[in-house]
Amino acid sequence: MAAVVIPGDHLAPWEEDVGDLVAFLRQQPKLDETRLALTGAPGGANSVWRLASHFPQWFSGVCAVGGYGNPYHVRALKDVPLLAVSVEREDLPSDEEEFLVGVERLVMGLRTAGSRQVECRREGPCSREEAWNRAFLEGDAGEWLLAQDRKKQFQVHWLLPGVWRIDDYFTASCYLVEGRDKALLVDTGMGEGDLAGLTASLTNLPVEVAITHPHLDHMHGIDGFSAVYLHRADREALLQNPQAFPGALSSPSASLPPLLPLDDGARIDLGGDIWVEALELPGHTPHSMVFADGYHRCLFTGDALGSGYIVLLICPEKEALSLVGQYQKALERFSAQLPRLRDYAWLGGHGIQENGCDDRRQQDYLAGCSHYFNPIRAEVVHDMLSLCQALLSGEIPWEQVQKAPDHYCSRGSAGIFFRFS
């Protein structure tokens, strides 16, 4: 447990310092960052609302007893389990620099934003201290907080009619696409919650799965679905040695669902003239695929082009430039598709990474003031081709890559991290 004293319950001057502290705690090996809950003493409720709404993906659950917050910021907590205790007869703080409202309005703002995770408990006339004692000393607020687990939580984003993005605790993104007869879930992420139940709450259609590549953060728990499409070579590898893909199943006793092979150009028919086309784009993995949905004009890219940040290439160091050459050829083949795909929405396997990978800067992009924004698009393909050529020609010396943090190199909007196996 970490306790922070905020003078006068006015977090603003101390927010950077408190954020740095929480970020430091999340990096500690003995602390499970997916079970980090937030609450405050009776005098710290305003700071709870502010910190939680500025860093919503840091906390597995939040309990605020009374207090005031900015309703537009608090809506960032839409997918975070929140226990709010409403206290009657609280005085509104005199803060002329920020618009603040009380618990009842904050809770309603969350509900109208689509939250199913907020619970409001109402205390009669009493002080905030009395309400806190009832919640924690006499009630179950403490047990409720400790029971929350980000590994079981998802964030749902409606993108357009018939398409949703679902993010898990690892910021892996999967996409639900509706046809007339069935729906397709592109990737399953690595969350441990009931993803099949969640998709069933979003669509009445039967849901099948298509996998961009068989990494743990994109293919967990596929046994929860009736059928799974994946590249033919990945299918064979999974059938022959399922133990090599320990995250694919939700439990050791689970069985693989029917696995359906995909080749380059194969189409998955969802009915009603809606189909999803599989396109090979190896590099991140030997058989990575992207999926093009012409009806909704969406391209689901997995990790084949990064997610607005970098592409990760994994190989022994002695094979790195050979892999770059193979990736370059794959990009050249894929470039033939750009005229028809250029104006699609390009949706990556880690959607939040279009703002970079520094979750310490969450408030920057939630507030619309991030200094990094690099969505996947055709320009990334062109710059990635240029980057590959610069590596192969020696324009970017290999010694420079070896010495760089994470063996990073970049050109324009494209970047590569090398992970040497």
Number of continuous helical runs: 13
- Could you tell me the number of beta strands? 19
The stretches of 5 or more residues where confidence is low (pLDDT under 50) are none
Task: Characterize the main sheet.
Answer: 7 strands, mixed
- Span between termini: 37 Å
Average pLDDT reading? 94
Strand order of the largest sheet: 5-6-7-8-9-10-11
Q: What's the alpha carbon Rg, rounded to whole Å?
A: 24 Å
Classification by helices and strands: alpha/beta
- Helix % is 25-40%
From the spread of the alpha carbons, the general shape counts as globular
Beta-strand residue percentage: 15-25%
Question: Any overview of this molecule?
Answer:
- The chain is an alpha/beta fold and 421 residues long.
- Helices cover 28% and strands 22% of the residues.
- It has 13 helices and 19 strands.
- The chain has helices spanning 15-26, 45-54, 71-74, 103-112, 128-138, 141-147, 195-202, 232-240, 320-335, 338-341, 362-366, 378-393, 398-403; strands at 37-38, 61-65, 82-87, 118-123, 155-160, 163-167, 173-178, 183-186, 207-210, 228-231, 259-262, 267-269, 275-280, 289-293, 298-302, 311-315, 345-348, 408-411, 414-420.
- Helix 9 packs antiparallel against helix 12 (378-393).
- The two termini are 37 Å apart.
- 42% of the residues are buried.
